Amino acid sequence: MGGGAPAQGRALGRQGQKTVRKLLEAGLIEFDERGFQAVRVDDIVRRASTSHGTFYLYFSNKDDLFKTLLRDCLDDMRVITGEFPVVTRNESGKTALRLWVHKFCDVYAAHAAVLRILTQADVVGEEVYGDGLQSLFRLAEAITQGMTAGAGSASGDGSSTLSQHAELTAVACLMMLERVNFLFSVEVRLPREEMIDRLSAIIYAAFHLA
């Protein structure tokens, strides 16, 4: 959390880091409560109890602040992308998949406001939206590899018994995960643990591992 464009290339002391975090937290709350377009820098500095001058020491504008929040979100997404397991055809594989789905839901919840804004391409701009899409496709690739590697190892000869469209299956499963977590984030009353069970079971079955 080194701040936005104005803060790049300079080391921030403890007070500077504290100020950046306070501005980011204020921005996140404002975006969550009011929506990206309605928020002004005035709103952010008022909530953070700081000045415009201080804000512009660390961020160029509200878009720059949002990009910093997004960078943190995408970093966490990269971590869970790398953690997608090889899902084998047994209870151990099912358990590993469910644990990963649980982690995905936790990460989504931590960055829900940012991810909701990111789905609105007309709001955030093509560059920022493109970063989100790249993260999405990397995650879909990880799901494809983890699910197909498990099936291949189970077959004994390294051949896959999966559909020729495993990548599309992964994208479809990921879209399902995203939409259900979106509903969680807007306070739709769904039984979270039960939904995680169902999501895991659906993904497992979608790759013909049931």
How large is the radius of gyration?
20 Å
Mean pLDDT across the residues is 87
Low-confidence stretches: 153-161
Order of helices and strands: HHHHHHHHHH
Share of helical residues: over 70%
The general outline is: elongated
| Tally of DSSP β-strands | 0
Beta fraction:
under 5%
Largest sheet: none
**Coarse structural class:** mainly alpha
The number of helical elements comes to 10
Distance from N terminus to C terminus (CA atoms, Å) equals 43 Å
Features of the shown structure:
single chain; 210 residues; mainly alpha; elongated
Q: Can you characterise this structure?
A:
This protein is mainly alpha-helical and 210 residues long. It starts with 13 loop residues before the first helix and ends with a helix. It has helices spanning 14-34, 41-48, 52-58, 62-82, 91-110, 112-118, 121-124, 126-155, 166-185, 192-206. It contains ten helices and no strands.
Q: What secondary-structure arrangement, pairings included, does this model have?
A:
Layout: H1 14-34, H2 41-48, H3 52-58, H4 62-82, H5 91-110, H6 112-118, H7 121-124, H8 126-155, H9 166-185, H10 192-206
Helix pairs in contact: 1-2, 1-4, 1-6, 4-5, 4-8, 5-9, 5-10, 8-9, 9-10
